[in-house]
Write a structure and sequence with these properties.
ThiS/MoaD-like, 5 strands, globular, Thiamine biosynthesis protein ThiS, alpha+beta, 5-stranded mixed sheet, 90 residues, Beta-grasp_dom_sf
């Protein structure tokens, strides 16, 4: 996982998996979107496609390769972003 300085912003297909409330807000459990290279770019694109995700994404954890990541991290080829809202209970 790397960060990007803004020099290479080409669109690329990125797969997202939505869990629980994120899945309900998106209306799908998984999809592939064309987005810029960073996690932030991908999340912004997902919200543009599914406006109901806006509030959910604001509180979600985003996992890449099983690790929580920030918006500046670059999503590589064949990687999947997992969008997990906070879970209640235990």
């Amino acid at each position: 996982m790397t960060t990007i300085d803004g020099a290479h912003r080409a669109l690329r297909p990125v797969t997202l998996r939505y869990w629980a409330g994120a899945r309900a807000a998106a209306g799908v459990s998984e999809e592939t979107l064309e987005a810029g290279p960073t996690v932030g770019d991908v999340l912004d694109r997902a919200v543009a496609v599914h406006p109901d995700l806006h509030d959910v994404v604001a509180v979600c954890s985003v996992l890449l390769a099983g690790r929580a990541v920030g918006r500046e991290v670059v999503v590589g080829p064949d990687e999947v972003l997992e969008v997990l809202p906070p879970f209640a209970g235990g």
